[in-house]
Amino acid sequence: MCQNNNVKTKDYRARGPKPSDPDTRAESVASAVKALERIGAAFSVADVAERAGISRATIYRSPSLRALVGAKGDGPRTVAAADHEKLEQRCQNLKTRASDLRRRLAESEAGWEEMRERALAAEQKLAAAERRVESLSSLARGAAGGALGAVASRLEAEERRRARRILARALHPDLFAQDHATAALATELLKTLNALAE
Fold it and tell me: Concatenated DSSP letters for 123-150?
């Protein structure tokens, strides 16, 4: 028994959304053509379709849409001398601006590098000053404690308090605000004097 394989089957292709309103498509194509003409360079039907948001086939199938594009996009177009001059001037302005921005960026980077070096130098100076203050403080604690203690033991309590007030005025750290090491040493001396005056 023979089977007939020549039976035609119906084509069930999925269909997309229906095209938008023809007037809306015509307006989109016309505005796309105008925009491309303003640029002044050659364009194709594909360029118009892409800018209008429709397919090339839609333009080719519709005589009215194809008429809107016409022969404008079919070949190379010449650019008017005035338009070319404007574009050339704009290009030169952009090149000048880019060069200026590159120069300013290089200056900023150089300034940043200089500030970084200055910050590192300041950190090193601060660390050295802190080491000096620490050594002077320990020296003051040791020397001042022993010598001042010997002298203070020979004084009456009232004499020690009066001497402490006079020395406190002379050694106040605010008097040495410009010299941090001296201010730190004065503070340590005052601590020792306060301990002896009690």
Answer: HHHHHHHHHHHHHHHHHHHHHHHHHHHH
- What single DSSP character describes residue 85? H
Classified as helix, coil or strand, 70 is coil
What's the Rg (C-alpha) of the chain? 45
Cβ pair 140, 188 in contact under 8 A: yes
| DSSP structure string for 90-116 | HHHHHHHHHHHHHHHHHHHHHHHHHHH
Q: What is the pLDDT of residues 149-163, one digit of tens each?
A: 667 677 777 887 787
Six-digit token string for 111:
């300034």
CA 131/CA 27 separation, integer angstroms = 80
- Tell me the whole-structure pTM to 2 decimals: 0.31
What gap in Å lies between CA 65 and CA 26, rounded to an integer? 6
Contact 189, 197 (CB under 8 A): no
pLDDT digit string, tens, across residues 104-148: 999 999 999 999 999 999 999 998 888 887 776 666 555 555 666
Here the tokens at position 47 are 């360029």
List Cβ neighbours of 182 (8 Å cut-off, separation of 6 or more): 176
Separation between Cα atoms, residue 159 and residue 151, nearest integer Å? 11
End-to-end CA distance of the chain: 129
Q: Are the beta carbons of 47 and 23 closer than 8 angstroms?
A: no
- Encoding tokens for residue 144? 């001042």
